[in-house]
Design brief:
With 84 residues, the protein is α+β, with helices and mostly antiparallel strands. The chain has one helix spanning 49-59; strands at residues 22-26, 32-36, 44-46, 66-68, 81-83. β1 and β2 form a beta hairpin.
């Protein structure tokens, strides 16, 4: 299995230029980045996933942010996305 620091995460294929979706991704540093679709830089970086989800909801009211799974669960595995 590869080291997570070397893994490049990509947003779901559904993300495109006019998309107002917001993504919450875990960074190699251990904190969480909030990004808009097709952005080069994070809109915000926060210490916890819960705070990042809250910020993503502020940036895109009325839309559910897509959150990267960071652990194995009964509902999915890492590198998959779920709605918050």
């Amino acid at each position: 299995m590869s080291n997570t620091k070397d893994t490049k995460h990509t947003k779901p294929a559904a993300a495109h230029k006019g998309d107002k979706k917001v993504f919450v991704e875990k960074r190699p540093e251990g904190d969480f980045a909030v990004r808009k679709a097709n952005s080069e830089r994070a809109s915000d970086v926060l210490p916890t996933q819960a705070k990042a989800i809250e910020r993503a909801k502020e940036l895109s009211p009325g839309a559910s942010p897509l959150v990267e799974r960071v652990r194995n669960t009964a509902g999915g595995k890492p590198d998959q996305w779920r709605k918050a």
